[in-house]
Amino acid sequence: MEGNKISVGLDIGTTKIVAMVGRKNNYGKLEILGIGKAKSLGVHRGVVNNITQTIQSIQQAVHEAEAASGVKIEEVTVGIAGQHIRSLQHSDYITRTNSDLVIDEDDIDRLINQVHKLVMLPGEEIIHVLPQEFKVDGQAEVKEPIGMYGGRLEANFHVVVGQVSSIRNIGRCVKSAGLELEGITLEPLASANAVLSQDEKDAGVALIDIGGGTTDLAIFRDGIIRHTAVIPFGGNVITEDIKEGCSIIEKQAELLKIKFGSAWPGENKDNEIVSIPGLRGREPKEITLKNLSKIIHARVVEIIEQVYVEIKNYGHEEQKKKLIAGIVLTGGGSQLNHLKQLVEYITGMDTRIGFPNEHLAGDSDDEVTSPLYATAVGLVMDGLKRQEKRKQEAVAQKEYEESIISDDSEQEEVIEKPVRERKSFLDKLTERVKDFLDNAE
């Protein structure tokens, strides 16, 4: 069993920071060895705003995960989200100098690098460039242009943009907590990998991840990510509203929301009342559940409507772009009672709650399969994928070098160059963040 590599996902959220240790078992499923979580104090709406507190929370979560798994944690795969993430559609093309040769990786790299030169707003950085479909000499809907002949190669891209400083701050926290950055991933993508099936991604689906500080959206169609957005509200604003509306302290508001909260006011009878102990010798407060769910309902409707605007921006109303698999809700906020019914009512789309058990081993703990941990599970998967990729690259490189050495002069064999994996921008970004941190110290 030792041969199986271990990967650690670190989900730096607004309400909690989760460190999750996992590895692939012999059946290729994901086995979670341990979880650590800490209250997140230095993060607001997905963005780090207090470095010291965030470092402490990361260390606490990591220690807990180490104790639970018996593994020493050194490298982590981190998710980025936050209100500064936005996405745009962009198309670009290159003209090839020699159309007698078939299109190869280098041409696609050239095209992708060209997109990276797009002029962004000050302080913004391109995080992902995801090709949607290609055109070769005007022939549309080419899924994979490699190996084709053509003079003009163009593509539509889904470009995700975020603030450099926010990304660097996360890198800084991880580094100062004594950890190495193995990779950086967009959180909506990580959650999507954990809870969506391939069929859903092909049919068309919107994943809504309702966290504490932000609600992330990722839309897939034909197996490709089509749209991402981060909406700067989440479960915390609901708690905040309950606190203000009922004049109680935050801890009580959070408990009320989790225990008695419902997104659908019609469900509660007028006479259902919860009594809350008063502060320091004051009279207890009585709160009707009907009022509680009215407060929750108003806020949830607002969040869902904003997400629905994004789904419409993507073009869900066009026949060709229809999301047949509807909506999948995940994240801690998805556990609110009657939320599924409300989302179906507002959007008219089929909805289910997404549990991150798509790739988990069958005997996983119930706790791990909670929607709370969707992002963390996705980050662990992403880390394992990265390791796999590096291993393959190393093997290909080694074979290539050996084939050169063993090649005698008589044998005029054509040696295949090792397959070079396209380096995703996030890998480059991770390297840049690492360099930046090393030089900054």
Protein topology:
Layout: E1 6-12, E2 16-24, E3 30-39, E4 43-44, E5 47-48, H1 51-69, E6 75-80, E7 86-95, H2 105-116, E8 124-136, E9 139-142, E10 152-163, H3 164-176, E11 180-186, H4 187-195, H5 198-203, E12 205-210, E13 215-221, E14 224-231, H6 235-246, H7 250-260, E15 273-276, E16 285-288, H8 289-314, E17 327-330, H9 339-347, E18 351-353, H10 374-405, H11 425-440
How is this structure best described in words?
This protein has helices spanning 51-69, 105-116, 164-176, 187-195, 198-203, 235-246, 250-260, 289-314, 339-347, 374-405, 425-440, and strands spanning 6-12, 16-24, 30-39, 43-44, 47-48, 75-80, 86-95, 124-136, 139-142, 152-163, 180-186, 205-210, 215-221, 224-231, 273-276, 285-288, 327-330, 351-353. The chain has a domain at 235-298: Nucleotidyltransferase, domain 5 (2-Layer Sandwich). Helix content is 37%, strand content 27%. It has a 5-stranded mixed beta sheet with strand order 3-2-1-6-11.
Features:
five-stranded mixed sheet; 37% helix; alpha+beta
As a percent range, the share of helical residues equals 25-40%
In the CATH hierarchy, what is the superfamily of the domain at 235-298? ATPase, nucleotide binding domain
CATH class of the domain at 235-298: Alpha Beta
Poorly predicted sequence stretches spanning 5 or more consecutive residues:
none
Tally of alpha and pi helices: 11
User: Strands of the biggest beta sheet: in what spatial order?
Assistant: 3-2-1-6-11
Mean pLDDT score: 89
- Basic shape: globular
Spatial extent as radius of gyration: 24 Å
